[in-house]
Design brief:
The protein is mostly helical and about 210 residues long. It is built from 13 helices and no strands. Helix 4 runs antiparallel to helix 5.
Length: about 210
C-alpha cells in the first residue's frame, strides 16, 4: 500500500469537514489530525533515503487535492533536511507560491531558515524575496530566522522587516510582530530599541505582537 493509500484509508469525513471549515473551506481534507498523520507515516519516513530529496515525490504530494498531503510533504522534507542546500531553494519557492496559505508557509519557512543558516549565501535570495510581489515569499523572508536565538542575524532581520513597512496585508504585519516577539526572548533590549526607532513606520499590529514579552 502506498503512503497515499495509507493516508486516504484513514479518512474521517466529519473531521475533514471541520478541518476544511477552519481553513475557510479553501482546501479539501481527508480528516487526519497531525498526530495521526505522523503516526501513520512514521515507518515510511524512517525508510526514505535521507541523502537527497526526491522532488518528484514532493511535487506529487503537492498536486494531491487533500491538504494533508502538503503537510506530509513538509514532514518528508524535514526528514531529509540535512541533505537540503541552496540548490533546493528554487523548488521550495515553487511550493511556497503554489496552494499558498499560512499553514504551509509557516512550515516552509523553517526549512528555508535551516538551509540559510548553514549556507549564508542564501541570505541574498531572502533579501530578494522580502520585496517580492508574492507576499507569502515576503512572509518567509521575515520569519525564516524564528527560533535561531543567539544565532539571529539582526542586521538581516532589520533589513528585511524595514523593507516591509507600510503594508496593509495582515499576514505581513503579523509576521513582523512574530519575528520580533520571538527574538525578544533572546535580546529584549534589541527589540525595544528597534520598536523605538521604527514605531512611526510600524503597523499597530506589529508593535502589539512584538511587545508581548517586553
Amino acid at each position: 500500500m502506498s503512503i497515499f493509500e495509507t493516508l486516504r484509508a484513514a479518512a474521517n469525513s466529519e473531521k475533514a469537514a471541520s478541518m476544511s471549515a477552519y481553513m475557510r473551506d479553501q482546501f479539501a481534507y481527508i480528516g487526519i489530525p497531525t498526530p495521526d498523520r505522523r503516526r501513520l507515516s512514521r515507518d515510511f519516513l524512517k525508510s526514505v533515503d535521507k541523502t537527497c530529496a526526491n522532488w518528484g515525490f514532493v511535487f506529487e504530494c503537492w498536486r494531491q487535492p487533500e491538504r494533508e498531503f502538503q503537510y506530509f510533504a513538509k514532514d518528508y522534507l524535514s526528514a531529509v533536511l540535512p541533505a537540503l542546500g541552496p540548490v533546493d531553494i528554487p523548488n521550495l519557492r515553487e511550493l511556497a507560491v503554489t496552494k499558498s496559505w499560512w499553514d504551509t508557509i509557516d512550515g516552509l519557512d523553517e526549512l528555508v531558515g535551516d538551509i540559510a543558516l548553514r549556507y549564508p549565501e542564501v541570505n541574498a535570495t531572502l533579501l530578494a524575496w522580502s520585496t517580492d510581489d508574492n507576499f507569502w515569499l515576503r512572509r518567509i523572508a521575515i520569519d525564516h530566522q524564528l527560533g535561531r536565538r543567539a544565532k539571529t542575524d539582526t542586521e538581516l532581520l532589520e533589513a528585511i522587516i524595514v523593507k516591509n513597512f507600510g503594508q496593509t496585508e495582515f499576514f505581513i504585519n503579523k509576521a513582523i510582530g512574530w519575528a520580533l516577539r520571538e527574538y525578544s526572548k533572546t535580546d529584549p533590549d534589541w527589540v525595544r530599541d528597534f520598536i523605538e526607532r521604527h514605531r512611526s513606520d510600524m503597523a499597530a499590529l506589529s508593535v502589539r505582537e512584538a511587545s508581548r514579552h517586553l
